[in-house]
Predict the 3D structure of the following.
Amino acid sequence: MDMRTMTALELGRKIRAGECTAVDAVNASLGQISALEQELNCYVTVEPEKAIERAEEVQKKIEAGELTGPLAGVPVAIKDNMCTTGTLTSCSSKILSNFVPTYTATAVKRLEDAGAVILGKTNMDEFAMGSTTETSYYGATKNPWNLDRVPGGSSGGSAAAVAAGECFYALGSDTGGSIRQPASFCGVTGMKPTYGTVSRYGLIAYGSSLDQIGPIARDVSDCAAILETIVAHDIKDSTSVDVAETDYTSALVDDVAGMRIGIPRDYLGDGLDPEVKAAVLAAADELAKKGANVEEFDLNLVEYAIPAYYIIASAEASSNLSRFDGVKYGFRVPEFDGLHDMYKKTRSKGFGAEVKRRIMLGSFVLSSGYYDAYYVKALKVKALIKQAFDRAFEQYDVILGPTAPTTALKLGDNLSDPIRMYLGDIYTVSVNLAGLPGISVPCGCSAEGLPIGVQLIGDSFQEKKIIRAAYAYEKTRTWGQPELAEGRHSK
Amino acid sequence: MRISDETIDYVGILAKLDLDEQEKEQAKTDMGNMLDYIDKLNELDTDGVEAMSHVSPIHNVFREDIVEERTLDDRKKILQNAPKQKDGCFVVPKTVE
């Protein structure tokens, strides 16, 4: 078997069994990076020497029996909005183009403690604002399945790197779909945990009440194992929750008999690509064949999630991004006239168009006279959306639907029309508003050969239910996604 | 919703952004379109609904105000990220005449 297409857990087993070493693994990833990176641009930063040195150190610890976990020695890529001591963390923005953190995000630290070998930092939409990875200051990432297509976003670099074998798994972050949607577009598996499950300490904030770190990997088992490794109650994140049951890999059981699965009719209506719809319903059929009780229902309020999301996320962004002012870190314009002029010129030159658009909108909806009409209204709608999900979870264990309304879009198609881009988040944003866990699992390909993802949504802290359903579905799959992506680039 | 020049200038002050004429025109169009779209929320009756700022089952989180895990070395490293520093401090343009 080609090492480049192995899952993280398979590789971890082989390293522990002495069939290959952590150094072999990191060299396989680095080889793939040097072969493909020029055309794909998955990474902002790759640090080959550091990675090899780290792999040698980890290998020694594995051999000495000090590192025994399932991910020990496995190379990983980290989204560039998570702080890593001594390594550039740019958020794909000009304003952080020289920012080298002095501390490491808790989620990344947890991986390091488990013996992960970090290859580098992946490209993303600037400050995670976008659905295509085209708003990066460092150029767009391309979809490994089709170089004219976007990888999705904002964790597009992470998803594309996993699909192309440029790493064995990656961390992403999801504020409105930024793990699940690129996973869907790139034919990989991506999971957004319940809000509060993974510490946000060291994650550069976009929408603090919505942001959550999660895994992007080659299959459901990898996602469960990665989540089990990064989950932690962290006093450094005041929204971190002490989760009772974190044995996610125990839910990798191929049995959905009696599981109640609801498909929101509102997720199958206008705007959904017929090929995506057919693939998602076929996935539901597979689960029904295995004994799940699958039915359609009305979730309601779906069309209100996007406007509520963009008010809340932009409001929080305008506040969070006020810290980038050219004083403590990052870029500062060379010429200015006084302090306020320095702030304004630094921010205007340092942020890209989409980030400025959202800061402006956020500042407006929070401004005196508009606060109640927009911001408070959105928080009330958020409460209604949460109630709609609460009602749904009285009836169902898992909600199933598409991850995105389409397959990967053409590069450049969405940049000129922001609202059109925002509409692509219709099936993912409400999950963030309600703080729920969601996973996107590959469920087929379009006639053009582009991957399609099915999304499974669970109630708060019910990750194990969606992992179980996703795993059972995955077992019915007869095609191997990573091999397909690999085939496109085999040398 | 039509966004006036005054509104864009005011929001620019709040956002600490200095937009050129072309960016201002674009911002007027973009914000107007977005607000028209957002107005969809007014179709919903939210009277009596409590605004939900947070979904988590946690409220205030307190701890003792004690500095942990910090050294002078950290301070040096942190300052290395500053565009300008002097004597262990961030340097900004003169703010008081």
